[in-house]
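so my prof wants the structure for this chain in the tokens format not the other one, which i didnt know existed until like an hour ago. anyway here's the sequence
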Amino acid sequence: MVQVLYIDVLFILNLIMDFYIFVIAAIIFNHSIKKSNLIIGSILAAGLYCLGLIVPVLHNLPLYLYYFFIPIMPILMIFKPNTLKMFIKVFLISHFAAFLIGGAVFNSYYICLALGIVHSLSMIIPILIGGMICLIIYLSSNFIRKRFIMPHFEYDLSLCKDGEHIQLKGFLDSGNCLYTLSSHKPVSVVPYEDVKPLLSEGEKGVMSECFKYGIQESLNKVHQEMAKIYLIPYESIGCKEGILLGIVVDHMTISKGAYCQVFDECVIGVVQNQVFNRQNYSALIHPDYLLRP
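here's what i got, hopefully its the right format
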């Protein structure tokens, strides 16, 4: 008896499995990706796979070339690697995720075959197994980061400006490369609502104006108060690029256990939203402060 597999069913199954593979790769690689890019990349990968089965000329390709070229375009679409090294890492991790899901699906298939329930669950098995592996890896990754990695980067942060003090929970951001343009001072990042008690009425007015209408439109209206505020160009804080508003605090104290150090005249970048989705931390500390001799 010949088993018939329709191309639309094959496409949907590959789409779901490719989605799982790229999600697992993103978790392992610890790389944030856009949902739209993830969906489009998964559709592209599934489409290329089905195209290889439909177009006769592609049947003559060696198997290793076939599986090498199919993931390239989806990886470029989803992860946008800017170096060859990053591309190779994502490529290998994606194949590892595929082997992980494929191995689990085949094992489950033969277990179900022994139980005589393959035909009734032939489509459901890979979808369920892939989803379970995604969930297990996500929960495991979350647990490892919270329990073993993130505590090493947690610090208590105290900011003082014009006699006002605030206490925050800070996180050392090793990827923070923000500096002021002229003086090249390192910039730590704090949400507006948390730093608000330190701001003067003029500074609050400037920032509210900029958040509401945009910095470019607000420059002419509030040019007098803008003289007290830094304009810091950035990339990757919630969007591709932009300008961050910054203020100077009189003192910034970073402490953890027996460690305590005070820095004077520090620049604090102010963002409109929380720096962490779950609001565990209220500040991103620039690594220069902890790497200073």
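also thought this was worth mentioning. DSSP finds twelve helices and seven strands in the chain.
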